[in-house]
Amino acid sequence: MDGTDVFKFAVKTMSETALKTMELGNLNSEDIDLLVPHQANIRIIQASAKRLDLQNDKVYVNIHKYGNTSGASIPMALCEARAEGRIKDGDVLLLVGFGSGLTWAGCAIRWGKGGTTN
């Protein structure tokens, strides 16, 4: 695989998936309390957050601790963010991932007792 092409694909896909997820949930960047992306690469996370107009404090990153843990990265990040107090009841979380086979998915959830998004 060509690293540059994979990087471009990942940033484009993660950003577009996040935007489509927000559109389907009638959300905008201001509504998002925390982006919890797949922890594949810090540059991909940073570039995607920039495209979504999200400040660093609204993006959860733990790749520096564990590296790319593949399909476990989002659940691990959710668990860790919650333990750190970064997620509170009612927060709107945007989860976006991509992986081998060049697959991707996203979802928006309202955490805890705050109900659900559209």
Q: How would you portray this structure in words?
A:
The chain is globular and about 45 Å long. The mean pLDDT is 91. Helix 1 packs across helix 2. The protein has one domain: Peroxisomal Thiolase, Chain A, domain 1 (3-Layer(aba) Sandwich). A three-stranded mixed sheet has the order 1-2-3, sandwiched between helices. With 118 residues, it is α+β, with helices and mostly antiparallel strands. The chain contains four helices and three strands.
Which regions are unreliable across 5 or more consecutive residues at pLDDT < 50? Answer: none
**How many domain modules?**
1
**Main beta sheet: strand number and arrangement?**
3 strands, mixed
Based on Cα principal axes, name the global outline.
globular
Count of extended strands: 3
Summarize the model shown.
The protein has one domain (3-113): Peroxisomal Thiolase, Chain A, domain 1 (3-Layer(aba) Sandwich), CATH 3.40.47.
List descriptors:
118 residues; alpha+beta; Peroxisomal Thiolase, Chain A, domain 1; three-stranded mixed sheet; 4 helices
SSE order and pairing:
Layout lengths: L2 H22 L9 E4 L4 H10 L11 H4 L6 H11 L8 E8 L3 E8 L8
Parallel strand pairs: 1-2
Antiparallel strand pairs: 2-3
Helix pairs in contact: 1-2
